[in-house]
Amino acid sequence: MTETTGFIGCGNMATSLIGGxxxxxxxxxxxxxxxxxxxxxxSAKSSYGIQVARSLDDLVSHATTLVLAVKPNHVREVLGNxxxxxxxxxxxxxxxxxxxxxxxxxxxxxxxxxLAVVRVMPNTPSLVGAGAAALYANPFVTGHQREQAExxxxxxxxxxxxxxxxxxxIVTAVSGxxxxxxxxxxxxxxxxxxxxxxxxxxxxxxxLQTAYGAAKMAMEDNHSLEDLRKRVTSPGGTTEKAIEVLExxxxxxxxxxxxxxxxxRSREISETMKG
Length: 275
Ligand SMILES: NC(=O)c1ccc[n+]([C@@H]2O[C@H](COP(=O)([O-])OP(=O)(O)OC[C@H]3O[C@@H](n4cnc5c(N)ncnc54)[C@H](OP(=O)(O)O)[C@@H]3O)[C@@H](O)[C@H]2O)c1
Known about the structure:
binds NADP nicotinamide-adenine-dinucleotide phosphate; ProC C-terminal domain-like fold; eight-stranded mixed beta sheet; Rossmann fold
């Protein structure tokens, strides 16, 4: 059987994944999409030449792998609507990128206890092909289906596997919300550099390139982050003075509190999503 991927929802995340798949060489004839907003599907069709389904049922009938890419509050309704079609399809894989919706609920709402489901937590840099996603598979997912899910997520960045679904809350706190922490730190560095005398453009460019350069160096160098930090911290130098202030003010403790707060909130949201 020819493998086809069907996207339910054609918003920001689905469009970035469709773009990633197209750039990675997935044939446009194997990518299907359905969205209640036909402007979005027509736009994806004209950009990537993909196939647009007439309805949810039409999409399910064409796809061997479904990617659930609607907002979390629409998931239950969508799964209820495709329940009937899913029952007859024994080989389907469902990949859910909906934040906070656990696999047990997905299977129950889809009316298939033994449905193969991969749950994914992506992040916004996927939109520029530099995402970081964590994946968790339930026991009904085959090795081949794991590879399929991984290759979809790898088309827009890094993809790693989790052993426990509950780790999704930690992932949400670290990489799901993570881009905002880095934006916040860069925003503040830029503001302070401007107050100290640089122009807005000078400060912005230097901060962005430094963040990009530090991440690139850390990814290309096998040393630990601690070693890299120590290598640019000469005794008696300027960096040492700055790090001393960050340690006196316990930046590390603050970051820990921030991650724990995000993780707790992720658990709370998951609980409220349960049906
Ligand atoms: N963006 C992120 O950084 C991020 C990170 C991690 C996880 N996620 C997850 O990714 C999922 C998608 O997020 P997004 O930002 O791409 O959302 P989005 O841009 O709002 O896309 C969702 C699309 O689904 C459509 N839709 C709603 N009901 C539908 C239905 N019954 N059938 C088909 N399509 C339907 C929506 O149309 P309308 O707009 O007309 O409702 C919209 O076009 C969410 O579950 C989110 O939790 C996103």
